[in-house]
Backbone:
């Protein structure tokens, strides 16, 4: 029996500041195109926001569970952000890629940097806000965090924005439909 050569899947790393709309762009993208595509669900210790589902948006776990996964070296990347832990399961991502499935990681910039060191050929996409003022307005408009948490996120924004030049693509999320079109164009170009 002849073994079928499976083309390696492509890894897409999508990042940008908190509140920039990464999740909204990706949710809309997956409604349009989900053939041969896997959205990597990160593990987190933060509490779910309204309308978030365990296993769909994140794997919500305790800090003890997360620490056990760190000890077992189960993460492709992990970081602490705004007092919570976030991480990407290494085995799931590598299994999908090895089986020819494209993987999208939606992660914060520190995690993205770690992934980019391990996967030099990752397709990196930075989602940028039209302005810091607009980003602050979006964060406040979510009504999901207290003032201290919002300030912590805003303190990270300047550092995150300064790293956007390290990414292959930068998409400004000013108008959702336009940002979505640009994201789809990047994806289609990279997988052709």
Residues:
């Amino acid at each position: 029996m002849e073994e079928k050569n499976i083309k390696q899947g492509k890894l897409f790393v999508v990042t940008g500041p908190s509140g920039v709309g990464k999740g909204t762009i990706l949710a809309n993208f997956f409604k349009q195109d989900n053939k041969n595509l896997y959205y990597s669900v990160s593990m987190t210790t933060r509490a779910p926001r309204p309308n978030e589902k365990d296993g769909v948006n994140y794997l919500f776990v305790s800090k003890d569970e997360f620490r056990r996964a760190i000890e077992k070296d189960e993460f492709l990347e992990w970081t602490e952000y705004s007092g919570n832990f976030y991480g990407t399961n290494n085995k799931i991502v590598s299994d999908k890629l090895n089986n020819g499935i494209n993987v999208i990681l939606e992660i914060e910039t520190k995690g993205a940097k770690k992934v980019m060191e391990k996967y030099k050929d990752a397709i990196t996409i930075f989602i940028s806000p039209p302005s810091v003022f607009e980003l602050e307005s979006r964060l406040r408009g979510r009504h999901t965090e207290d003032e201290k948490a919002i300030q912590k996120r805003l303190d990270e924004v300047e550092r995150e924005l300064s790293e956007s030049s390290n990414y292959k693509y930068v998409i400004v999320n000013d108008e959702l439909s336009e940002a979505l079109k640009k994201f789809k164009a990047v994806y289609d170009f990279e997988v052709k």
Observations:
- The beta strands are 11-15, 37-40, 43-44, 59-60, 75-81, 84-89, 102-106, 123-128, 169-172.
